[in-house]
Amino acid sequence: MEPLMAVAIGILYATAIFMMLRRSIVKLVIGLMLLSNAANLLIFTTAGMTRGAPPLIPEGMSAPVGNVADPLPQAVVLTAIVIAFSVLAFAVVLIRRAYEVVKADDLDKMKETDT
Amino acid sequence: MRPEVALPVLLPLLSGAISLLFWRSRPVQRFIGIGGNLALLVVSLWLFVGVMEEGYITLEMGGWPAPFGIVLVADVLSAVMVLMTAIIGLLMGIYSLATTGRGHEKFGYYPLMHLLLAGVAGAFLTGDIFNLYVWFEVMLVASFALMILGGERAQMEGAIKYVTLNLLASIIFLTAVGLTYGTVGTLNMADIALRLDAAEHSGMVEVLAVMYMVAFGIKAAAFPLFFWLPASYHTPPVAVSALFAALLTKVGVYSLFRVFTLVFDQSMDYLQDIMLWAAAITMVTGVLGAAAQFEFRRILSFHIVSQIGYMLLGLALNTPLAIAGGVFAVLHNMVVKTNLFLISGITHRLLGTYQLKKMGASTVSAPGWQWPSFFQRFRWPVFRRYPGSSPNS
Predict the structure, then answer these.
(1) How far is A69 from A19, CA to CA, in rounded Å?
(2) Strand pairing partners for B73?
(3) What are the residue ranges in chain B where pLDDT is below 50?
(4) Cα–Cα distance measured from residue B57 to residue B260, given in angstroms and rounded to the nearest whole number
(5) Where exactly are the transmembrane stretches of this chain (chain A) (predicted)?
(6) How near does any CA of chain B get to the CA of A91, in Å?
(7) pLDDT at res. B294
(8) What is the per-residue pLDDT for B366?
(9) Pairwise CA distance, residues B182 & B391, whole Å
């Protein structure tokens, strides 16, 4: 499972960077979205994938028995998803406003503030 | 139970939430704005005094013991940074009362300012690397919204670059956090340091160190990753620019100091060389960029970049004296850069322009106002003897 995930994450990162290098601001936001998903999958995978072993503590004991899944990366990914979602919502509003003001879906037309 | 460690984070969040309740009432929002900043200053002083007496204070959130739960840690560096944040927050609040337009205040200027302060204080106080990422994002989202408040074309263009590059940095940071957890199995910074010392020095550790360096380097605006800063910092209202100049890049610098003195304190010679060169080139490019500009705020924006170089040089030299000098440069720069931005606002108010070429008659038309700037530029002589302070700007 891990090698497959590694390839998938690599493709996601590459696609995201490619999208961010395009001139269109819509594709820029798609790139940001893919990038955060890639990072979340990466956290999920590097922390170790254990199938069918929920981290439950049997009754009368104080620690789970045997090799169980690590619950912490899931909590971390959940937090990261929420953050990525809020940032994405902001980015979508931003590109809409930018499109209204600049009247172009093109980063090359947005060079007024550069030197 | 030491509440003063959590209060600098909780109070701004609370005052932000309360002023959201009074969305339509401008006077109440202004009152809560100043009141919240005053309260933040009081708890920061409380924390600072406690830390000066005891050395450091920790608070385990939710009662979970240290490597498992999230801890807030206040040592002298964190406490002094939080205190500076509170002081600058209060000054910005007062300055905003006079300079912020009705249009900005109507769309949540004060709640956003409090959210920004909460994010900055959280980043300074947390002892957990993933929690640091969360506070970075809280701070960033608030700063994104503050940056585009007003909705002018320049703000939109600046904000797109600012948002993209800062999000890229955040994702690199998040990736590094995930890989750190995969490598050492903990997220507590002190615990990561212990486990990395115990583990053998593998290539993965160096990859992680470089990822943290790049992520925080973008946020701190170090060469060659600083281009978002001069493209965006001069676009929002002056009080917002000054707040950003004082706090945001400094959080990046603080994180570099924290991570490279606590977690990656093993000797990595070529990394230190990279950081030395980056710091030196940052100083030079920042100043050269500033020299080419004629817009007051753009000059100051490039100057922030140059000053970041001085701070990083302290870290890159990596001796106790150099690091102390770097920290001093951070604190000193927070005060001076804020003041310079505020002076640019006063200049704009008096003369109606940010263009230096049109400012020639300022000493004639506004006698007396050149003196604050004059003193700022020479700096207080007492500071010039310290190793961290720079002779120029």
Answers:
(1) 34
(2) B58
(3) 378, 380-393
(4) 21
(5) 6-21, 28-52, 72-95
(6) 8
(7) 84
(8) 57
(9) 45
* pLDDT for res A17: 93
Structure tokens at B275: 């950081």
- Of A28-37, A48-57, B15-24, B176-185, least confident by mean pLDDT is A48-57
The partner residue sitting opposite A79, judged by closest CB among B134, B152, B153, is B134
pLDDT confidence of residue B387: 43
CA distance B225 to B282: 9
CB contact under 8 A, B159 and A98: yes
Asked if B298 and B311 count as a contact pair (C-beta separation under 8 A), the reply is no
User: In chain A, what are the domain boundaries?
Assistant: 2-50+71-109
* Phi/psi of residue A105, nearest 5 degrees: -100, 60
Phi–psi pair at A29, nearest 5 degrees:
-70, -40
- Per CB-CB distance under 8 Å, the chain A contacts of B161 are 113
pLDDT for position B235: 86
Dump pLDDT digits (tens) for A11-20. Answer: 999 999 999 9
- Per domain, the residue ranges of chain B are 1-127
Q: B234 in contact with A at a CB cutoff of 8 Å?
A: yes
B375 in Cβ contact with B312 (< 8 Å): no
Judged by CB atoms closer than 8 Å, whether chains meet at B153 and A73 is answered as no
Q: Does B130 touch chain A (CB under 8 A)?
A: yes
- Give A-chain residues touching B301 at CB under 8 angstroms: none
A-B contacts (CB, under 8 Å): 106
pLDDT, tens digit, 9 for 90 and up, residues B234-255: 888 888 999 999 999 999 999 9
Chain B residues in contact with A97 by the CB 8 A cut-off are: 148, 151, 156
Partners of A80 on chain B (C-beta within 8 Å) are: 133, 174
ipTM of the complex in this document: 0.93
* Structure tokens belonging to residue A99: 């499109």
Q: How far apart are CA B96 and CA B111, in angstroms?
A: 13
Mean pLDDT, chain A, rounded, equals 88
Nearest to B171 among A28, A39, A94 (CB): A39
Q: What is the mean pLDDT of the segment spanning A53-70?
A: 83
Taking the domain A2-50+71-109, which CATH number applies? Answer: 1.10.287
B186: closest CA of chain A, how far (Å): 9
Residue B376's pLDDT is 56
Residue B326 amino acid letter = G
Q: What would the mean pLDDT of A81-108 be, rounded to a whole number?
A: 89
Backbone angles phi, psi at B234, to 5 degrees: -90, 0
CB contacts, 8 Å: B153 with chain A: 101-102, 112
Q: How many CB atoms lie within 10 A of CB B85?
A: 27
Q: What is the pLDDT of residue B393?
A: 38
Q: Which residue of B has its CA nearest to A96?
A: B156
- Which residue in the set A32, A42, A112 is minimally distant from B167, CB to CB? A32
CB contact under 8 A, A28 and B157: no
> Rounded to whole angstroms, how far apart are CA atoms A54 and B298?
55
